[in-house]
Design brief:
- It is built from 47 helices and two strands.
- The chain has about 1000 residues and is mostly helical.
- Among the domains are: about 120 residues, no CATH class; about 100 residues, Serine Threonine Protein Phosphatase 5, Tetratricopeptide repeat (Alpha Horseshoe); about 60 residues; about 70 residues, no CATH class.
- Strands 1-2 form a two-stranded antiparallel ribbon.
- The two termini are about 55 Å apart.
Length: about 1000
């Protein structure tokens, strides 16, 4: 670490240290800088170094170290106030507030000392001529902390009544404190009203809106404004995450997870900050953190996950049960220390109440990725069925009747009902028919493994005197064989049951339902043959399947009556015909048949069977360009599936609907469905596959709404699971691209550049290089905004080479202009900047000469005009204040010449170029005024006014241009 040789070097070092991340390393550097300042023998240098040290302590986990440098500063002020400049005198009085709050946060500081310090603060502020606003705010903090509500309300009123002056906290911090009190008093709506200007970005500071977003989470949940709460969590946690000093706000986000069914994410948050368990420099925020750790651990314990491994204090492994006990004991011991100091039980009461909270939302999907754990799949515990006095056999007839009712009406969970019958029938003597039905439904439950049971059921049905149902069971066995790849066996087995059922039906030896069942089984086997046939499919195979399907319709159509099973056969046959039409390439016919099938299921009172076909219809409608029908079908599928939809299917439907709505520009509703898709994909265990794609889409929809922080959080959570193999490298590039855009909007330019460069590195391997060029250009912009000028120039050069290869003059010219501006700020200086800007003019003029059509000519003309305009701006700015007068004069003359060129070029665009022309005209006018040419400047101002004659005030650009032209005329006339 190099020594500090003079005061300026010290100030530069402190400024650099201020930009470092919060934490012990920055604090240690501040301590070293104080030691260096003391060697300079300059009192103000020591004062500034102490102030710097105090500031970094305050914004860290070592807040307890603030008191020593402040005591020294105060002693220096009392002994030699003349050593303080105006800024340091102001800063000394400013941090009085930090000392009051800092003492309150340390339970070892007696309350009497805090009250004495409050009086000292009031006395010194009065002597310095400051308002009592900051003093009353500090008094409010003391009173609310110890639970003296009456005093707190008086101080609160006095705080708001006092005049704001230079000692008052910033608007953002004041509004946060006022809103916090309203929320504490149960006035959540009023709290959110007070926080609104901070949450909406009207007021901000180093720790706002960070804390307001965190404080708003539980009030929003209590008001059932869950969508806002979710948005505030995603946006706010992103702000809090890198700031070590914000343990209290971090705790609010952990609490939010515990109260919304996001226990897995809560554990991830704890794992990110192990030091928060043990940092002792700020006991009050440690108490807040331990309190919500207890809340989260006891929530897990209540869900039966007491032995779940969880992140905790370093040095040992923890289970949820162990950490709950440890954190509760630590929190209550710490709260007790505060209460003994304060002489009340208020802090302990609040801690116990916070730890005892119940969830406010059963499950609030966040859209972000959570590590798959037992927490993520917690189910509501099913209460045990109490023992029955009656023997199980007495229930069997009831269970059997219910199972038959569910089967006859094709209700969901019929198979489960038959499983309950089977359990109740163990050890009970049953007749043959009952045993046949039980085995038949057990086979249905087993799926691919049910062949032998179907055949056993067929034997028992025959023994029971029901040959039709026996043949139907045999046909079910044949279909299962077809499903498991034994298609030839299945085809060999369908002929005999088919022939026999038709004969039986003709002789009234079986019913319509059994006959339809056998015909449906045969048609299903034929459909499997169609699906497994090599491309192109033999028309004879398709014809056989179609004939078998139409035979079902001929048998059943118009004869179903109240029998929902027969109605279902007809509906399924329509769906089979739809599939065959789709395979034959008749998409419109397929869509119509799927619509009929879905409608038939709904009409039969079986809407859950319609879901598959509505989803298929949506895909076909989208293919046909009928987005309205696709949207309708997907909404119907979600509605008809209702609670019967399994998680994977629900995720797919929400995702499809999100994509359709997004294509129509309805990004808000699309985001809602993408969020649901991500949630249900996670529930289905498909987070890394379908869930990652849903998060990718969700991030894009949030970006379209300008919700940059939320979008960034979601996109960052999607990236670890997105892979070229599963999702395609296009999805990876697009996610990085979107994320770069979000980070750029959030001012995180270095990180934006990194994302854009990563995306460009993938895109450079693509045959078409436009995306590669665009990403390289965007990365260069971010590097420049991050102050990495050399890296930016290299990236712009790379982008320019790509634009040239693509024949994209606009991209090439803009990269050259950007490099010119970078050169002006670098060691290369003005000469290199002029060379690059001249090259941009040359490239644009050459392309204009070879423009292939009028549209291209107009676009290149505008580009040339903008390049001349920027050249003029660059030349004007290249004239340094310490240059010789002749040099400055020459630079301004050259700048005016370029501006005049820009005016002339834009004039060639007529009305389309009016705004650009008048902007250049005004710039030229100001240059003329600087060069002492008032007549020229006035003429240019009047030309602008003339350009907007007859243009109404509703044109904002025209209004601004006229105002600036009038201002220029006033300046010229005054001169």
């Amino acid at each position: 670490m190099t020594g500090i040789t003079d005061f300026d070097a010290l100030r530069r070092a402190m400024a650099e240290n201020s930009e470092e991340p919060e934490g012990p390393a920055r604090n240690a550097r501040a301590e070293h800088l104080l030691a260096e300042a003391e060697k300079l023998n300059v009192p103000l240098a020591v004062i500034e170094a102490l102030g710097h040290q105090l500031k970094v302590y305050n914004y860290s986990s070592e807040k307890d170290k603030m008191f020593v440098p402040f005591a020294r500063l105060l002693r220096m002020w009392d002994e030699r106030p003349e050593d303080f400049d105006e800024y340091e005198a102001h800063s000394l009085h400013w941090v009085f507030k930090w000392m009051t709050a800092g003492m309150l946060d340390q339970p070892h500081v007696p309350l009497s000392s805090i009250e004495k310090w409050l009086g000292e603060m009031e006395h010194r502020y009065r002597l310095a001529g400051h308002s009592e606003r900051a003093v009353r705010s500090a008094e409010f903090n003391v009173a609310s902390h110890i639970g003296d509500v009456q005093r707190a309300e008086r101080a609160y009123a006095a705080w708001l009544a006092a005049d704001r002056d230079s000692m008052a906290d910033c608007h953002a911090c004041e509004l946060h404190g006022q809103g916090w009190w309203q929320s504490e008093r149960g006035r959540d709506e009023r709290a959110l009203e007070l926080w609104a200007p901070v949450l909406e970005g009207e007021f901000a500071c180093a720790h706002e809106p960070h804390t307001a977003l965190a404080s708003s989470l539980v009030p929003l949940l209590r008001l059932d404004r869950v969508e806002e709460a979710r948005a505030h969590h995603l946006r706010g946690f992103r702000l809090v995450r890198p700031m070590e000093s914000m343990r209290g706000a971090y705790a609010d986000h952990v609490e939010f997870c515990a109260l919304t069914g996001n226990e897995a994410r809560g554990l991830e948050l704890l794992a990110e900050r192990p030091a928060y368990f043990t940092d002792t420099g700020h006991p009050r925020s440690r108490l807040e953190f331990l309190t919500v750790v207890t809340l989260l651990m006891e929530r897990l314990t209540g869900l039966g996950l007491d032995e779940q491994r969880v992140p905790g204090p370093p040095g040992r492994a923890w289970t949820a049960h162990e950490l709950a006990a440890h954190a509760r004991a630590q929190a209550l011991e710490l709260a007790g220390r505060f209460d003994r100091r304060n002489g009340t039980s208020h802090v302990s009461d609040l801690a116990r109440a916070r730890m005892a909270q119940e969830p406010l939302v059963e499950r609030l999907p966040l859209g972000v990725r959570s590590a798959r754990s037992t927490v993520a799949s917690v189910a509501v515990p099913v209460p045990e069925v109490p023992a029955q006095d009656e023997p199980v056999e007495a229930e069997l007839p009831t269970l059997l009747a219910e199972a038959r009712r569910l089967s006859a009406t094709l209700q969901p969970h019929a198979v489960e009902a038959w499983a309950a019958v089977a359990r109740a029938a163990e050890g009970v003597e049953l007749d043959v028919r009952d045993r046949a039905e039980i085995i038949d439904h057990r086979a249905m439950d087993l799926g691919p493994d049910g062949v032998e049971l179907f055949e056993r059921a067929a034997e028992l049905y025959a023994e029971a005197g029901d040959p039709g149902e026996s043949l139907a069971a045999r046909m079910r066995a044949a279909y299962v064989r077809a499903l498991t790849g034994r298609l030839q066996e299945a085809l060999a087995e369908v002929t005999e049951p088919y022939d026999r059922i038709l004969a039986l039906y003709a002789e009234d030896g079986t019913g319509l339902r059994q006959t339809a069942s056998v015909l449906m089984g045969r048609a299903r086997v034929f459909m499997r043959r169609v699906h497994e046939a090599d491309e192109p499919v033999d028309p004879a195979i398709v014809g056989a399947a179609e004939a078998a399907t139409r035979e079902i319709l001929a048998l059943v159509d118009g004869r179903a009556g109240d029998d929902v099973r027969l109605a279902a056969r007809a509906a399924e046959a329509q769906a089979m015909l739809a599939e065959l039409a789709a395979l034959s390439g008749d998409v419109e016919a397929a869509a119509g048949l799927f619509a009929r099938a879905a409608a038939a299921f709904v009409g039969a009172g079986l809407p859950w069977f319609a879901v598959e076909y509505e989803a298929r219809l949506a895909g076909l409608a989208h293919h046909l360009g009928d987005t309205a029908e696709a949207e309708r079908a997907l909404r119907a599928a979600l509605e008809h599936g209702g609670p019967h939809l399994e998680a994977p299917g629900r995720a797919q439907l929400h995702l499809q609907l999100a994509e359709v709505l997004g294509g129509r520009g309805l990004s808000e509703e699309a985001a809602e469905h993408a969020l649901e898709a991500a949630h249900w994909a996670d529930e289905a265990g498909e987070g890394p596959t379908l869930g990652a794609w849903a998060r990718h889409q969700l991030g894009g929809f949030l970006l379209r709404q300008g919700r940059w922080a939320e979008a960034a959080e979601v996109l960052e959570s999607a990236l670890p699971d997105l892979t070229p193999e599963t999702h395609g490298d296009g999805a990876v590039v697009q996610t990085q691209w979107w994320l770069g855009d979000c980070l750029s909007e959030l001012g995180e330019h270095r990180e934006a550049a990194e994302r854009r460069l990563q995306a460009a590195d993938i895109a450079r391997h693509w045959p078409e290089q436009h995306d590669h060029a665009t990403l390289a250009h965007l990365a260069a912009e971010s590097l420049g905004q991050a102050g990495l000028h050399e890296e930016a120039d290299r990236a712009y050069t790379r982008a320019g080479d790509l634009w040239r290869e693509l024949g994209n003059t606009h991209g090439l010219v803009r990269s050259l202009r950007a490099r010119a501006w970078l050169a002006l700020r670098s060691e290369e200086g003005a000469d290199r900047a002029r060379e690059l800007m001249a090259a941009a003019v040359r490239e644009c003029a050459e392309a204009l000469d070879a423009a292939p059509d009028e549209e291209a000519c107009a676009r290149l003309t505008a580009e040339l005009g903008h390049t001349h305009r920027q050249f003029g701006d660059l030349l004007a700015r290249s004239a340094a204040e310490d240059d010789e007068d002749d040099s400055i004069q020459a630079a301004l003359e050259a700048a005016l010449s370029r501006m005049t060129e820009a005016v002339n070029v834009f004039a060639g665009l007529g009305d389309h170029g009016r705004h650009a022309r008048t902007g250049a005209e005004l710039a030229a006018g100001w240059l003329a005024a600087d060069l002492g040419r008032p007549t020229d400047a006035a003429a240019r101002a009047r030309a602008v006014l003339a350009a907007y004659e007859g243009v109404g005030e509703d044109d904002g650009v025209a209004r601004e241009r006229r105002a600036e032209a009038e201002q220029l005329l006033d300046v010229v006339e005054e001169g």
